[in-house]
Write a structure and sequence with these properties.
With 118 residues, the chain is mainly alpha-helical. The chain is built from five helices and two strands; from the N terminus they run αααββαα. The chain folds into two domains: 63 residues, Orthogonal Bundle (Arc Repressor Mutant, subunit A); 43 residues.
Length: 118
């Protein structure tokens, strides 16, 4: 069952974010609740709640007596969800702001290309 909160909730993004940033290999064990809590200064109960949500989302799996592990396909799924969020939130807002400022499509593409070169 999917969590109604999803991986964009603060307690999930605090855990999913570091997993994405580190590019933790699928099948690899993730740090313990205590380690994450100390490293990112997050309340251990919040970390546990976030990890439980990630298990419910099918991104982590519990292995009794061993800990939590990244599920195969989890990183690709997170990247896909982030790309969808980026398009939905960032690109849509960027295009709307460009239109408001009278910036045409080709000019906007030029600005984006300039940003990539910097």
């Amino acid at each position: 069952m999917r969590s109604p909160v999803g991986t964009s909730s603060p307690c999930c993004s605090g855990i999913a974010g570091p997993c994405r940033d580190v590019r933790r290999p699928e099948g690899e064990q993730v740090p313990s609740t205590t380690e994450i809590s100390r490293t990112y200064t997050i309340n251990p109960a919040t970390v546990l709640k976030g990890m439980t949500m990630l298990v419910d989302e099918g991104l982590l799996e519990k292995r009794r007596g061993l800990g939590m592990f990244v599920v195969p396909g989890a990183m690709e799924r997170l990247r896909r969800e982030e790309r969808e969020r980026f398009e939905r939130d960032c690109v849509t807002d960027l295009v709307a702001e460009a239109r408001r400022l009278g910036i045409g499509c080709q000019e906007l593409i030029g600005l984006i290309e300039k940003g990539y070169r910097q």
